[in-house]
Amino acid sequence: METQSLVGTYNKKGQRIVDPEYLLFEAPRQSHFMTGSEVVREAIRRASVDISVAYPITPQSEAAAMVGDLYVEGYVGDYFRGESEFAVMSQCAGASFGGARVFTTTSGPGTLRAYENFPMWVGSRLPILINVMVRGVNSPLNIQPDTLEIGLIIDTGMLIWHAETGQELFDYLLKGYMVAEEPDVHIPIAIVIDGFFVSHTKDTLMIPSADLTLPNYDPYRSPVPCMDMEVPPVRMMRDPFVMKSNYISYATHASWQQETRAACERSRKHTIRMLGGLIEEDENADSEILIVSSGTAVAQGREAARLLSEEGIKVGIIKIRTIRPFPYEEIRQATKHARYIFVPEFNVVGWMAREICAAIPDNHRVIAGPRVAGGMTMPPEVIVEVIRKTVTKREVARG
Amino acid sequence: MGKDKIKINKEFYDIMPPEYQELVESATYGKEGRGWKDVGIAKELIEEHSLCAGCPESIAFRYVLACLPNPEDTVMVGSTGCTSLVFPHVAVHNIHSLFGNQNAVAAGLKRALAYRFPGKIKDVVVLAGDGATVDIGLDMTLQSWFRQDKFLTICFDNELYANTGGQESGLMQKGFVAKMAPAGKKFDKVRMPDIARESGCHYVAVMTVSKPNRVEKAIRQGVLIAREIGPTYLQLYTPCILEIGKQMMEGLQEMRDSEGPGERFAFQEYMSDEAKQYLASLEAEKKKPVAAIAAA
């Protein structure tokens, strides 16, 4: 179990293993124009992934199959198709228990079929990276973009980052491993994108050379023993108190849940270093009117703000990058001057608005919408309309 | 992981539990010909157990652990149920993750270990109850066999859900009255050994645990064939004496009564031609004179 840095050496594909800081911040980058699925392939090509397990579901199937191409090319150690998302996430767990860096993807109903695995991953401290390409989970069947499923996985204990663009997707996939694998974090991470809007849309982004790759995962930095029979202890406990109905059993479960939630909180410092902050504020963020959301809803909000600026109405944009840990303090600070906080969302329930309402004082300032669902687009004009109407009505009411 | 890796720092020796001290002093890791006869002498693989007094599963567990050919490099995967009460005592790395996903976890684990330790033996053994193997986890059990994932699946068949209080399971006998089968089970005991053979297992064996020599041989063969050839399946009758109304000293007799000719746990064994050839080659290797091995 001796561990040594491989930085500076070359892997079997001839890629130079480089310091993550170099790969992510310093290495020269070139412009590419590609779909979100292709972005996934290019990120994973540079991620030194050991095992990936795939299963077909729209819209993630294309990316999952492209990772298979990487396996054939020799960039990914092993790869296969599982039999369902429940099985796939368990196969990912097994590989991660065995000390592998693991990558998988899922979408919509697949996310829900896999659901039981997510809290298990967290409790077992498995730093698996799952790319969730969200889509509708309603009936009748719906494959279109819809972010309801983020709200459904929000409290599984995983880290959840929401990428708006292909560029963010590329960077979050690589940075996500670096944060999730920190010994004081070491829990799974979901990198979320909006299905189709990001997965199937071409975008221009800057990426470093394919001759560079992240250092391999070191399972012996894990806060819990790697299940490979290379590290003691082998007899875990004399008395399996965790299965008993007594105070010490309950206290053990409670404290372990607190610890895994604390691990999520401890990711903040690493995330701030990697992403530059849990939120992103634009130059108008001091405005009385704010649009706060995550993912492509922010892109639509940005366009709405541009339209309103033509009428002389200043609107600031606050993008939430990390859904978990949620940027409570950052949002409190960023919204403290605001009179109107609009939260556009691609789902029927408005879970993001609920999160923001729970985070700030005077939450009557939050206007939970506009919201669209089921694959409906959200034209910026719709956001403009809601802002205009709400502001006018309240200003009239205030006299 | 050899004994050198589990050594205790001298400063801390006296505060380590006696079971751990004994593990370090007298582990049968690496011992040639280890087997069920070590039960009672070397207790490192399972110390205590938290099952009901007289539960046949407890002795089955001891046989399994004592007969693993390579425990120092074996990782076990369990599932939810009575077996999950024992696993925390077991002195090999073991994983419990969810109910029924044991063969999926083992599939990922085996691939990770094969990728990380090329050329080194790393055995994976699944041990789960009949509910986990044949009901809730059937899909993943079969799919791991279809894919030819290289590990042994052991099913402790007690013909019902014991840990939740005696509900009907797919491996229960037809007609048996149980919780959730209040008028008696309406369909036959699932023919899992046949299914295993048809699904691609290279070694399938069914027996009770009344005859330790037989169990030992089956476990060794199951692990060795899985290591080199493909998936293997072992179904062991471990009656739930509590739920079938037996006393704690009656487990052994119950097993003996169930393994006669024509009974449901009459000894059955199937081996693929590839597996037979492999075992024969191992035997031939053993019989080679030492000089010939050294020359090769």
Question: What would you note in describing this structure?
Answer:
The complex is a heterodimer of chains A (399) and B (296). Chain A is an alpha/beta fold and 399 residues long. Chain A contains 13 helices and 16 strands. Chain A has helices at residues 20-26, 36-45, 61-73, 85-97, 108-113, 117-123, 148-153, 166-180, 247-275, 296-310, 328-335, 351-359, 380-398; strands spanning 16-17, 29-34, 51-54, 78-81, 102-106, 129-134, 159-162, 189-194, 203-208, 212-213, 279-281, 289-293, 315-320, 322-324, 340-342, 366-367. In chain A, helix 3 links the parallel strand 3 (51-54) and strand 4. Chain A is globular. The N and C termini of chain A lie far apart (72 Å). Chain B is of the alpha/beta class and 296 residues long. Chain B has a seven-stranded mixed beta sheet with strand order 2-1-3-4-6-5-7, sandwiched between helices. In chain B, strand 1, helix 3 (82-86) and strand 2 (94-95) form a beta-alpha-beta unit. Chain B is globular. The two termini of chain B are 27 Å apart. The model of chain B has no long low-confidence stretch (mean pLDDT 92). The chains are: A alpha/beta (399), B alpha/beta (296). The interface between A and B is large, with 46 and 49 residues.
